[in-house]
Amino acid sequence: MTAYSNLSTHFGRAAALGNAVGILQWDSDVMMPKGAAGSRAESMALLRVMHHGMITDERIGDWLADADADDGLGAWERANLREIRRVWTVETALPSDLVEASSKAISACEMRWRQARAEADFAGLLPYLAQVLTIQREIGAAKGEKLGLSAYDALLNDYEPSGRSAKIDALFDDLADFLPGFTQGVLAVQAKRPQAADPEGPFAIEKQRALGLRMMAALGYDFERGRLDVSTHPFCGGADNDVRITTRYDEADLAKALMGVLHETGHALYEQGRPQGYLNQPVGQARGMSLHESQSLLVEMQACRSQEFIAFAAPLMRETFCGSGPAWETDALWRRYTKVEPASSASMPTR
Fold first, then answer.
1. Is the pLDDT of residue 341 over 80?
2. How far is CA 41 from the centre of its chain?
3. Whose CA is closest to 273, among 304, 299, 303?
4. Could you write out the DSSP letters of every residue in 143-176?
5. What does pLDDT average to over the chain?
6. Which residue in 238, 32, 29, 223 sits closest to 113, CA to CA?
7. Which one has a higher pLDDT value, 350 or 56?
8. 196 has a pLDDT exceeding 90
9. Which helix (H) or strand (E) holds 178?
10. Is 202 within 8 Å of 253 (Cβ atoms)?
11. Residues noted as catalytic
């Protein structure tokens, strides 16, 4: 076997292990009984340590050096080598015990967060969150030393390859200058439009789910490679060719679940559209959270709040909930789904 084929096979096996982690994580968030949390955390930590061990294998450096000298590789293979080297370089900065500690701390914090959210008990969550933060700072310091970056930029690099805080600061400075005046202008224009009443519920959960499934199908979601479920907070997860999304339902609010479904479908369409020939290779993985969120927001905020999409969806919404009256008219629904409201101080996150 050539050095490149050794790398491809090795990282393909690592991806298979990562897929198992993805499905176990989905199950933890969707179906796992609460009493299984401790044993599941142990299993997840072990699998993540095994995965880390595979992508920091001591043979990888030699394989990379030999593959770099292979003149027979094409553009995709060269790009894959670049991504393999990036992943390997970052992960070799971490000892396996730190990987294990991080996994266990995040699992414990996740379970405590669910309880704290239901009880509005931030104080009870704080020690778990503090432990996660402490470990992430250790990880950031270790990766930063390896990459010659600040701890923050080293952690940012995991979510946005080559992303840097200086670039983000400049972007947010521009938004801080632009948004206040723009928002006031939008509110002024909106005030001249007729106000749209909200359709009145209750909206049965089974009907909300049925409508969500119809919208997913209309957007092109492949149900043979995924599914829709319920979780505490909507997310997109799963594994290669098994892209699962979730939402949460409120019988008094139709928009909450529907927009959650549309947003997560945007994530899922990106995942289902990744190149099949390189699905299990680093070059075939999602290219950072900026691109991922751009796809979900493109679907939710641009496509699915457009007049054209609402004109398509309105008859289906009326049919599903037997809706009638002014609040269910197409134009009223469009005005509702494009309504802008300034955030109140009470709704803003605290630091």
1. yes
2. 21
3. 299
4. HHHHHTS-HHHHHHHHHSTT--HHHHHHHHHHHH
5. 95
6. 29
7. 56
8. no
9. helix 165-191
10. no
11. 264
Peptide bond into 33 cis (omega under 30): no
Pairing, β 236-239 against β 242-247: antiparallel
Q: Dig out the tokens for 92 from the structure.
A: 């070799």
Residue 347 has pLDDT above 50, yes or no: no
Which pLDDT tens digit goes with each residue over 312-322? 999 999 999 99
- Taking alpha carbons only, the member of 234, 196, 207 closest to residue 316 is 207
CA distance 311 to 133: 46
Q: Residue 202 region, left (φ>0) first, then alpha (ψ -120 to 50), else beta?
A: beta
Tokens of residue 293, six digits: 């969120």
Number of residues assigned to the chain: 351
Residue with token string 């991504």? 83
Tokens of 324: 């009638």
Across residues 55-82, what is the average pLDDT?
97
- pLDDT, mean of residues 122-136: 97
How much is the average pLDDT of 48-59?
A: 98
Dist. CA 19–CA 54, nearest whole Å: 14
Segment 153-167, tens digit of pLDDT: 999 999 999 999 999
Supply the angle between the helices 60-68 and 3-30 in degrees, to the nearest 10.
Answer: 130
Nearest to 216 by CA among 291, 266, 275, 271: 266
Nearest by Cα to 50 from 7, 15, 84: 15
Q: Which of 3-7, 131-135, 194-198, 307-311 has the lowest mean pLDDT?
A: 194-198
CA proximity to 254, closest of 313, 298, 299, 341:
313
Place of tokens 């027979």: 72
Q: How far apart are CA 37 and CA 323, in angstroms?
A: 42
- This prediction has a pTM of 0.93
Phi/psi region, residue 57 (left: phi>0; alpha: psi -120 to 50; beta: rest), is beta
Looking at per-residue pLDDT, the higher value among 195 and 74 belongs to 74
Q: Which residue from 285, 216, 333 is spatially nearest to 14, judged by alpha carbons? A: 285
Nearest to 47 by CA among 103, 86, 7, 89: 103
